[in-house]
Write a structure and sequence with these properties.
Elements: H1 2-21, E1 25-31, H2 38-54, E2 57-58, E3 61-69, H3 74-86, E4 92-95, H4 99-112, E5 116-118, E6 133-135, H5 140-154, E7 159-165, H6 169-184, E8 188-195, H7 203-212, E9 216-219, H8 223-235, E10 242-244, H9 251-257, E11 265-268, H10 278-291, H11 297-316, H12 321-329, E12 354-359, E13 362-365
Parallel strand pairs: 1-3, 1-4, 4-5, 5-6, 7-8, 7-9, 9-10, 10-11
Antiparallel strand pairs: 2-3, 11-12, 12-13
Helix pairs in contact: 2-10, 2-11, 3-4, 5-6, 8-9, 11-12
Pfam families: Peripla_BP_6
InterPro entries: BCAA_transport, Leu-bd, Peripla_BP_I
Keywords: Signal
């Protein structure tokens, strides 16, 4: 048995060494390319591919992307992460998109000591207690704080309804943070309802919300559920303003919600105007040329994560996963998260939390970064103003 374990350890070590001794640098991409979150996964993948086209080499080696489909499922995310870490010989991993799947995948990243960078997973659990897991987006409590401030100071809300997707760590975390912030600041959550990813009929939840007559609805759920829920709520006579989180930032929100999501507000860490650096403008132009459309949040954050990993490899001077991890852990905040950041950060490291509004079916930024929120400086449309 001891001989077997020793041989196994040597075999795993050899695989790890081979990962960074090759002429080609392999970067694992862990995304939901099928299932409930496929639309978001494809958007992230599109951005990563454009970034790879912009910067196809690092340290004189070509970069090869190894895509693994998590199928929008935590078990499949674990399986895909195992495949990337044990069989694909990757130096680093970009992914996953949603918090629950990222937490599941992180087990293998930590076990094999391969750095994982998520573009969009915001739950505090994603990086808590982890050594090899990083993110480029704000955590849930920052988004929730902005949402609570928005509800209280800009919408004049004193009562709120919560809609929580109990199958997603992201939604559970945001709902809890919002409740704490809103109540602490003098508001009151008068009703809390639960859904699960994949639900299509929200009649029971909306009836409870209608009976409570809240000033605002906070729905930190994903784009499909949010769009359908908003449509059903408006049809049932519930007209309270809706605030959501960054997970709704996809064209599919308008597809599923139609006019019912007009004036919906959501916290985010991206707006196209943020692409104001030289490399950000380059990305926007190449993306437009390649796809015929302008990049949205998912595409830009996917590209951001790719460039963050490449920047770490350059500064490490190696594709050894341990050295890449050290470079990621020592990124300077001077001038931004990295020297290649697509999105302006104002020298603050993590991306700022913004507030976007849906106007005429488009995502429009209606706030500066979070520091401005407490003063009530948002210029919201008349339809959602108190």
């Amino acid at each position: 048995m001891k001989i077997f374990r020793s041989a196994l350890a040597m075999s795993l070590a050899l695989v790890s060494c081979q990962a960074w001794a090759q002429d080609t640098v392999h970067i694992g991409i862990l995304l939901p390319m099928s299932g409930s979150f496929a639309a978001g996964g494809h958007s992230l993948w599109e951005g990563i591919k454009i970034a790879n086209k912009m910067e196809p080499t690092v340290l004189g080696r070509s970069v090869e992307l190894k895509l693994a489909d998590t199928k929008s499922d935590t078990v499949e995310a674990t399986t895909a992460a195992f495949s990337l870490t044990e069989k694909a010989g990757v130096a680093a991993i970009i992914g996953e998109m949603v918090s629950s799947n990222t937490i599941a995948a992180a087990f293998h990243a930590e076990r094999r000591r391969i750095p994982l960078v998520t573009p969009t997973a915001t739950s505090g659990m994603v990086t808590s207690g982890k050594t090899y897991v990083f993110r480029i987006c704000p955590v849930d409590d920052e988004q929730a704080r902005v949402a609570a401030d928005l509800a209280l100071h800009n919408l004049g809300a004193r009562t709120a309804a919560l809609i929580c997707d109990i199958s997603q760590e992201y939604s559970v975390g945001l709902a809890a943070c919002f409740r704490n912030e809103f109540n602490r600041a003098g508001g009151s959550t008068v009703v809390e309802t639960r859904i699960r990813t994949g639900d299509r009929d929200f009649t029971a939840q909306i009836n409870r919300i209608k009976a409570a007559s809240p000033d605002v609805i906070y729905a930190p759920v994903y784009y499909m559920e949010c769009g359908l829920m908003a449509q059903q709520a408006r049809l049932m006579g519930v007209d309270a303003p809706i605030i959501a989180g960054d997970a709704v930032e996809a064209p599919e929100l308008v597809k599923f919600g139609g006019r019912s999501v007009e004036n919906l507000l959501f916290t985010s860490h991206f707006h196209e105007d943020s692409l104001d650096t030289e490399i950000g403008k380059k990305f926007r132009n190449i993306f437009l040329e390649e796809t015929g459309k302008r990049p949205q949040a998912s595409e830009s954050l996917g590209a951001e994560a790719y460039l963050v990993v490449l920047d770490a490899i350059r500064r490490a001077g190696s594709v050894n996963p341990e050295m890449i991890r050290e470079a990621l852990a020592t990124i300077s905040n001077d001038g931004g998260f990295t020297s290649t950041m697509l999105i302006r950060t104002g020298g603050n490291g993590p991306l700022p939390v913004l507030v976007n509004e849906i106007k005429n079916g488009k995502f429009v930024c209606v706030s500066p970064p979070v520091l401005e929120l407490g003063a009530g400086k948002l210029r919201l449309s008349d339809r959602v103003s108190p």
